[in-house]
Design a protein that fits this description.
The protein has 326 residues and is α+β, with helices and mostly antiparallel strands. It has two domains: 229 residues, Aminopeptidase (3-Layer(aba) Sandwich), CATH 3.40.630; 80 residues, Elongation Factor Tu (Ef-tu), domain 3 (Beta Barrel), CATH 2.40.30. The structure holds cobalt (II) ion and zinc ion (ZN).
């Protein structure tokens, strides 16, 4: 595990629509291994590996963007109100810190409530940047921010903000180095704006027009106290998607991944996810339809500032995908 690279990836600033810093970082790491590199109009980064002319055209997608917040109003005392970028839950926010692009930090807190029984609404939260009045606030309406939380490794577990989906970006970077002999034309797609509606992958898949597409993203687990029953456990191997709320994985892609897991002798799980989806759902419905599937990294506490994955699952995902593309 290259912890230095994963630290850089998770700590980079990249809410949906503002992926520039993440893209620059990834570009630096994939440039030596890609036959071509381009950034498209929506900011997607596409690293191309040329095959031997006998293979298929395959997209591997991981999204660069992360969830965050955006300033919607500044009051005269200098407190900021905000809206969400992607799936941000009020309960995760209270006491959290956010960081703006210019380095300004803010604390999210909750206004006083007489009735504390219902869970708070986003409109009852505010960001305090330590200002004493409106003129003192260094950021303005429209400024995006991300949660602040460092990467920590504890045993096999990795904990950080933005593992959704910088862990997928990490896997694709490592994978590109390992598939230099692949017969296939491979398009490593580092997509934008997934968290706000799978937007980057939709247009990128249209322009690439592949034979097959595979998203690498995170999925929830059923192994925490009173979790919704789900047959995915942290550390039991990467999860091959069967279905989620946005798509039914194409049987051909699913089988390719299952066969690859057996060939590479890595453990795997089958994923049936009730809520949520990935870039694969958008790619599948591109043009006349593209056979699509997904490989998921089991992840606890998705869309909180402290997401948790297992480094063995990450290593096994890379092995599995390398076998699938060999
Ligand atoms: Co997400
Ligand atoms: Zn994701």
């Amino acid at each position: 595990m290259n912890l230095g690279l994963l630290t850089q990836l998770t700590q980079a600033f990249g809410p949906s629509g503002y992926e520039d810093k993440v893209r620059a970082l990834i570009q630096e790491h994939v440039a030596p291994w890609a036959d071509e590199l381009r950034t498209d109009p929506l900011g997607n980064l596409i690293a191309y590996h040329r095959g031997n002319g006998k293979g298929q055209k395959i997209v591997l997608a991981a999204h660069m963007d992360e969830i965050g917040v955006m300033v919607s109003h500044v009051d005269k005392e200098g407190y900021l109100r905000f809206t969400r970028i992607g799936g941000v839950y009020p309960l995760h926010c209270i006491g959290s810190r956010v960081r703006f692009a210019d380095g300004t930090h803010g604390v999210i807190y909750l206004e006083h409530r007489e009735d504390t029984s219902p869970s708070p609404k986003l409109t009852q939260l505010y960001i305090d940047v330590g200002a004493t009045n409106k003129d003192d606030v260094p950021v303005s309406v429209g400024a995006p921010a991300v949660f602040v939380r460092p990467l920590v490794q504890q045993g096999e577990r990795l904990i950080s903000k933005a593992l959704d989906d910088r862990i997928g970006c990490y896997i694709l970077i490592e994978l590109l180095q390992q598939v230099q002999d692949s017969p296939h034309d491979l398009y490593f797609l580092f997509s934008t704006q997934e968290e706000v509606g799978l937007r980057g992958a939709r247009t990128a898949a249209f322009s690439i027009n592949p034979d097959m597409a595979i998203a690498v993203d995170v999925t929830i687990t059923g192994d925490t106290p009173k979790a919704l029953p789900m047959a995915v456990t942290l550390g039991d191997g990467p999860a091959i998607k069967v279905q989620d709320s946005g798509m039914i994985a194409h049987p051909k892609v699913r089988q390719l991944l299952v066969d690859a897991a057996r060939k590479a002798k890595v453990p795997y799980q089958l994923e049936v996810l009730r809520g949520g989806t990935t870039d694969a759902a958008a790619m599948q419905l591109t043009r006349a339809g593209i056979p699509s599937g997904a490989l998921s990294i089991p992840c606890r506490y998705i869309h909180s500032p402290s997401e948790m994955v297992d480094s063995e699952d990450v290593a096994n995902a890379i092995k599995l995908l390398a076998a699938a593309l060999a």
